[in-house]
Amino acid sequence: MRQEGTMKQLEISNVSKSFRKNEVLKNISFSVDTGTFGILGNHGSGKTTLMNMISALTKPSTGMIRFNDLDTVEDAIKVKELVGYLPQDFSLYDELNAYEMLGYIGKLNRIGTRKGIEERIEHVLELTTLRGAAYRKIGAYSPGMRRRLGIATVLMKDPQMIIVDEPTAGLDPLEQVRIRTLLTTIAEHKLILLSTHRVDDIAAVCEQFIFIKNKTIDFQGTPAEWLSGIQNPVIETKVEGTHQLNILAREFKVISMKQMQEGIHVRLILGNRTPDFQYTIVEPDLEDALLYYS
Ligand SMILES: Nc1ncnc2c1ncn2[C@@H]1O[C@H](COP(=O)(O)OP(=O)(O)OP(=O)(O)O)[C@@H](O)[C@H]1O
User: Which residues form the ABC transporter domain (predicted)?
Assistant: First the structure.
């Protein structure tokens, strides 16, 4: 018997998904209790496909997804009520202001009386720090404000789980921090699934995450555990020109390069051979990890 407070559980068991004969995901299994959980994968790895299934928008080809003891296929309507999904490309009505937009969402979702909707709007505006802009036309919002308003629309129906796709894409650093802070605040009371190809999002807000590669879960755990699995040293070295850089890139996984006055500074992951050039070993970070495991 589950106790109250642990009911937010999401369980994904042996889920596979194919579109005609094209298998996109294979035997995906993981479960999440609380907090912010990340789904990391390169472009086209199947993140959106997985989120669509978790939100009960599409069905797994095989396997089962349960949220709050509800099956996403059998109880799709109830699951949709409990889940708020903000895709990367969502639409807002530019001619409305935030207050009108949220009121419209409130009515659409039948979240309560007029007073109930107004109270809810006040709450989500406060949470997303949009109260000051509530009566401004959405068309004049910055990309960061639009994203926060997108999250506000999802929050209107008070879902138990929120799924966000690439929440910081295209935002300036300050707005990225705002969005991450907002997600962390929401995660105190709701389960958040964050799908991204960006490791800095994962590092900033996720306690646990999965890394999807070749249709399956390549890793599941904490960012620190992922880092500690890197077997090869990450190093920095200096080359004089692009010719030398190309030679290095043929043998090693080059992570980044920076043109400096005295040459090109290169960060790379060593292979098994001890290199015959001078280098400094550095602490690996999650960007290194992504390249290492990809
Ligand atoms: N409705 C569909 N019909 C056919 N193929 C599809 C469909 N949806 C997704 N796919 C295919 O499934 C694969 C995974 O796509 P998906 O959009 O889930 O990846 P993603 O990790 O979300 O990518 P991105 O980060 O670029 O959004 C792709 O090869 C895509 O072409």
Answer: 10-239
The verdict on residue 277 lying in a domain is yes
Confidence of residue 1 (pLDDT cuts 50, 70, 90): very low
For ligand 1, atom 4: residue with the closest CA: 19
User: How many alpha carbons fall within 13 Å on the CB side of residue 115?
Assistant: 0
Asked whether 154 and 127 are in contact (CB, 8 A), the reply is no
Distance, in Å, from the CA atom of 223 to the CA atom of 207, rounded to the nearest integer, reads: 7
Phi and psi at 201, nearest 5°, equal: -65, -45
Q: How much is the average pLDDT of 260-264?
A: 86
ipTM of this complex prediction, to 2 decimal places: 0.96
- Check whether residue 133 and residue 254 sit in a common domain: no
Same domain assignment for residues 100 and 233: no
Short-list 153, 162, 150, CA closest to 107: 153
Q: Which domain holds residue 175?
A: 10-227
Q: pLDDT value at position 213?
A: 96
Question: Do 194 and 236 belong to one domain?
Answer: no
Find the CATH number of the domain harbouring 87. Answer: 3.40.50.300
pLDDT of residue 6: 46
CA of residue 25 to ligand 1 center, whole Å: 10
Point out the ligand 1 atom lying closest to the alpha carbon of residue 45: 21
The C-alpha atoms of residue 288 and residue 292 are separated, in whole angstroms, by 6
Residue 94 lies in a domain: yes
For residues 180 and 278, give the distance between their C-alpha atoms in angstroms, rounded to a whole number.
39
What are 58-106's pLDDT values in tens digits? 999 999 999 999 999 999 999 999 999 999 889 999 999 999 999 999 9
Q: Is residue 2 assigned to a domain?
A: no
Q: Atom of ligand 1 at shortest distance to CA of 49?
A: 18
Read off the pLDDT of residues 209-218 as tens digits, 9 standing for 90 and up: 999 999 999 9
Question: pLDDT digit string (tens) for 27-65?
Answer: 999 999 889 999 999 999 999 999 999 999 999 999 999
Whether 221 is in a domain gets the answer yes
Q: Are residues 144 and 288 in the same domain?
A: no
Give, using CA atoms, the residue closest to atom 6 of ligand 1. 19
44 C-alpha to ligand 1 centroid (Å): 5
With a 6 A CB cut-off, is 68 part of the ligand 1 pocket?
A: no
Q: Is the CB of 39 under 6 A from ligand 1?
A: no
